[in-house]
Structure prediction request, 349 residues.
Amino acid sequence: MKAARLFGAKDLRVVDVPEPESPGAGDILIKVKAVGICGSDLHMYENGRIGYTDQSDVFTLGHEFMGEVVAVGEGALDGHFEPLQVGQRVAVDPCTPCYECEMCEQGHPNLCLHHTFYGLFPEDGALQECMIVHGRNCFPIPDSISDGGGTLLETLGVAIHTVDLAKLKVAKSLAIIGCGPVGLLILGLAKKAGAYPIYAFDKFDWRLEKAREWGADEVFNVDQVDGVQALMDATNGRGCDTVIEAAWADHSIQMAAEMAAYGGRLVLVGIPGDDQLHMQHAVARRKGLTIMMCRRMKHTYPRAIAIATTGMVNIDELISHHFPLEDTPEAFAKNFNYDQGVHKIIIDV
Ligand SMILES: [Zn+2]
Ligand SMILES: [Zn+2]
Prediction:
């Protein structure tokens, strides 16, 4: 069978790999149907590393994915602890916590000390035709959620966790820096949570157009105006109650601190390429900011499925391109270059 494997920085190749064997106890075999490309995949693609995870051998990317169950290992239960069945369509949470460390015990599986992660070296991801995954990571999805939409539940899960951390309140102001898929999903959820007004910032006009469509009250292109100044002008110099940073530029953290009101709250979601957090201490200290870092998500798939099926946020609108598995290298190059009109690219396996 085919798999798209990363051989080193910007060296992605579609190659033949052996078919997986039959699934062991608790595991299932899925035929992968769709995989989304994520900003963190682009970090790996660009540098062969993310954070302090270095890639030291060839491996398969892809952590936003869904598929169809083709074989069920003994006693395999899904994420709701129900038996899995052949033919079910399932979205897969890529993160496997150990369920038996202090963080897991305290209800923070996203901070598990021993977790593994599909699509992060050394664990192979989903850019392959078939794959064995743990049943507990799988959440059956209804037919009303498209294959591409099924992959976006992972992204949506991160947005849900972010909005949880942000503790948004009705008619309290919000600034969102970065209108990629995560930023836009945060915007969609923030609207539902009642944040107002919402200001959105990005350097690409087509993303800002989407932000406006999704209900941002004002949008600013940070390549054309000074984002901080623009926000201060719009808020009479006060800034925003909450600022969410969902970009991956190093100056955007500093921007976030400058945009926050006194006593405000920052939630940092973006992962900077240089793995450094740049923020002037005095700005954050004098304002007495509360700063939260978003690490993955908790048990958010059931909520993400509810949001997708009720149409609370129309996740399909974020899918701008589809590529077949054979064209994965072209899809990554297109996403990496931020070509005009790119929101979320889906690989149809
Ligand atoms: Zn991701
Ligand atoms: Zn754990």
